[in-house]
Amino acid sequence: MKSPFVLGSLLLPLVSQAVTASSSPGDVVGKVVAGYQGWFSVKQDTNDPNHAWTHWGDGTTNSVGVEVWPDVREYANTYQWDVNATLGNGKNATLYDAYDTQTVDVHFTWMKKYGIDVAAVQRFGTNVINPNTKDHVNGVAQKAQAAAEKHGVKFYIMWDISGWTNFTTDLPTDFLNNVKNFTSSPAYAKQNGKPVVNVWGLGLIDRPGTPDQAMTVINFLKDQGLYVILGVPTLWLTQADSKLTGFLPVFTAADMISPWTVGRYNGTDGAAAYQVQLKYDLAYCKEHGIDYQPVVFPGMAWSNWTPGALKNMIPRLHGEFLWQQFVNLRKLGIPNAYIAMFDEYNEGTAIAKAAEDSSMIPTNQYFLTLDADGVHVSSDFYLRVAGDGGRLMKHQIPVTKKVPTSYK
Ligand SMILES: *[C@@H]1O[C@H](CO)[C@@H](O)[C@H](O)[C@H]1NC(C)=O
Ligand SMILES: *[C@@H]1O[C@H](CO)[C@@H](O)[C@H](O)[C@H]1NC(C)=O
Ligand SMILES: *[C@@H]1O[C@H](CO)[C@@H](O)[C@H](O)[C@H]1NC(C)=O
Ligand SMILES: *[C@@H]1O[C@H](CO)[C@@H](O)[C@H](O)[C@H]1NC(C)=O
Ligand SMILES: *[C@@H]1O[C@H](CO)[C@@H](O)[C@H](O)[C@H]1NC(C)=O
């Protein structure tokens, strides 16, 4: 959790009535994007250059990193988690390695099937500069490119600057040495004729960088002919949760703004009330010719990762919570969405297939299952809600009060 949701800005007047149109539809405008972590490693998978337990926990019940347990039935290769663990259904408890080519292929098959237009492939700077993880990061991106090309899904690279103290120099180097080549793929997302990148974390209180440093990096990326999305603090516009007031010109230099919202509201009423903030952000973006990509999420919890955190902290409410966020976009005429995230099992925001009930999780450990809020839904339910949300946003289906997606 980065900081509590603050209502301060909601009282300010809308900035302007004179609005400019946003960009025409492209690979991100008018599209549903899902963040793609691809960061799980399993020690037993020696093909993964980082063959150590990473992000799942340490491979035993002593240390568990994920809140939501994946449904692994479609992966060709999975590996035993905790020597003695079995699932409620008696099967061995096994997990996947995100570097596995078949695993990545399955993920992009799901994106195509369920209507996720674009994968924002994550690139944590701290992993890029770490010799133990950089080959994993580059390999997953290459596999994502191949799977995106094969299945007709788009992808773009999204840096996360968390802990990346030297990002001002390292990010441009990483672009030229590693990222630039991806942009020549036919599956690489383009907007306004330019390859898309996202830099996430500028201006957040606990992330590195001054406004000048941030501007240097943005200018570099724009000079490279890129369409630059910035992942910014929730209250970027009023600076209430960004560290320095000097960041507004930095944010305004972006082609698209995507404020982080995970953990910032809960319940269908809380999600509906967030429309006020969306409207306020949207007015500024339109006035300054910036595209606006809200972040939506299915629910959130991270009690297995963060000691003392609430179980089922932000309940999914069998899809009603995510649905309400798409209703907001439709009502405000915002044609862009970023789903946080495709495979974020750690914070419990994954929309990818997950354990439905106690039969699909290890018997010796707590995990949040999809039936937690009293309705049994299929393991692909949140992929289907995401697809319906995209159709709602694109005016292909009507607004309904309740999520229209069938539970099975
Ligand atoms: C697995 O089970 C065996 C037999 O009950 C026990 O001796 C062993 O300590 C267990 N291993 C772990 C890692 O829990
Ligand atoms: C399940 O795990 C046990 C203990 O690690 C192993 O002996 C057995 O072969 C596994 N079963 C399957 C179907 O993989
Ligand atoms: C950052 O750059 C400085 C100067 O080049 C270098 O001494 C330092 O090791 C770098 N830090 C990291 C984490 O790469
Ligand atoms: C660069 O990208 C092209 C097109 O996707 C690909 O064919 C080529 O192998 C890549 N080169 C390197 C060095 O990765
Ligand atoms: C849910 O939202 C309410 C109202 O904003 C807030 O008071 C509460 O702390 C939130 N709960 C969580 C777990 O974020």
Word description of this protein:
It is a single chain. Helix 5 links the parallel strand 9 (194-200) and strand 10 (227-232). The two termini are 32 Å apart. The protein is an alpha/beta fold. It is built from ten helices and 14 strands. Helix content is 28%, strand content 13%. Helix 4 (167-179) runs parallel beside helix 5. The model is unreliable at 1-19 (pLDDT under 50). The protein has helices at 101-114, 125-128, 134-151, 167-179, 211-223, 248-252, 267-273, 275-287, 320-332, 381-393; strands spanning 32-36, 57-60, 63-64, 79-80, 94-95, 118-124, 154-160, 190-191, 194-200, 227-232, 256-259, 291-292, 295-296, 337-339. Strands 1, 6, 7, 8, 9, 10, 11, 12, 13 and 14 form a ten-stranded mixed beta sheet that branches. A two-stranded antiparallel ribbon has the order 2-3. Strands 4-5 form a two-stranded antiparallel sheet. The radius of gyration is 20 Å and the shape is globular. Residues 80, 83, 92 line the site of one 2-acetamido-2-deoxy-beta-D-glucopyranose. One 2-acetamido-2-deoxy-beta-D-glucopyranose is lined by residues 181, 184-185.
Give the arrangement of secondary structure elements.
Blueprint: E1 32-36, E2 57-60, E3 63-64, E4 79-80, E5 94-95, H1 101-114, E6 118-124, H2 125-128, H3 134-151, E7 154-160, H4 167-179, E8 190-191, E9 194-200, H5 211-223, E10 227-232, H6 248-252, E11 256-259, H7 267-273, H8 275-287, E12 291-292, E13 295-296, H9 320-332, E14 337-339, H10 381-393
Parallel strand pairs: 1-6, 1-14, 6-7, 7-9, 9-10, 10-11, 11-12, 13-14
Antiparallel strand pairs: 2-3, 4-5, 8-9
Helix pairs in contact: 1-3, 4-5, 7-9, 9-10
One 2-acetamido-2-deoxy-beta-D-glucopyranose binds next to loops.
